[in-house]
Specification:
2 copies of one chain form a homodimer.
Chain A lengths: L4 H19 L1 H10 L3 H8 L4 E2 H8 L4 H13 L3 E6 L5 E6 L1 H32 L6
Antiparallel strand pairs in A: 1-3, 2-3
Chain A binds a DNA duplex through helix 5.
Chain lengths: ~140, ~140
DNA sequence: CTGTATCCGGGCCGATACTG
DNA sequence: CAGTATCGGCCCGGATACAG
């Protein structure tokens, strides 16, 4: 069994590494933020609570499915609180938690960087894409 | 043409919104960071340059395809500089740019938040997932 | 050593229909 | 109003093979 072992080792290393990443706090956070709608929902709620239909209107691009899924995830993570009032028809409001608010502040840093520097990125992009031989 | 118009309007609104998002600096940045390997490559390079094969080893989980693709993207965005030395066989080194370094610092803020708060998230998760009726 | 080209399976996500 | 259920297309990304 000599020939397979190198590949075996690589596979094991990969599995171990994946497991490591799965428990890494930074990676988990990044995975959360990677969800397209998470940041938008957080922003929509950061200064005031809103009802489900409010959010749908204010975020405009979301499908029902994605909004619900995102809100469930945020609720599960303790970033958003869901409150049901048994009126007819039922009323549901969402509000950001203290933890969620603290995350929103960090995300605001990203926003700040983006607003200062994304133009540089755009310029770099165009330079990269431009026909190089021109002079 | 009365019946279709409502849906039409919604579609137009969505398209406009998507276009808006596409040009939003924050969203673009988020899209960049969402790439699984971007942050890892940035981290791997933040304190010293490295060659392609170094990166493959140090990041362990990446496939060749993804590493190349990520590096190309970072180079295009002006976050990483690629240098080819025409030895035989060819030598390629990657180093982070000033812009890339400034982004890495912002990402470090995320890391810091994650290390302080992801445990709270995990706890919230377990509470949410736990069988609620138990007491 | 540093890639490029291709195939292909899985999962994300939107659209649609239905429910309490 | 606030969801759940299901289907289907698309793209991400890994594996593999090949190349300068």
């Amino acid at each position: 069994m000599p020939t397979q072992t190198a590949q075996q080792r690589r596979l094991e290393a990969k599995v171990a590494y994946d497991a490591y990443l799965a428990t890494c706090p930074s990676r988990q956070l990044l995975a959360t933020l990677s969800d397209k709608w998470v940041v938008l929902v957080l922003s929509a709620l950061h200064d005031r609570p809103a009802r489900y239909s409010d959010l749908r209107r204010r975020i405009a691009g979301v499908s029902q499915k994605m909004l619900t899924q995102t809100l469930r995830g945020l609720e599960r993570d303790g970033l958003v609180r869901r409150t049901v009032v048994a009126t007819v028809p039922v009323t549901v409001t969402y509000e950001i938690t203290f933890l969620g608010l603290s995350l929103h502040k960090v995300v605001a840093q990203l926003k700040s960087w983006a607003e200062s520097n994304m133009q540089s990125v755009t310029i770099a992009r165009h330079a990269y894409d431009a026909p190089e031989g021109v002079d």
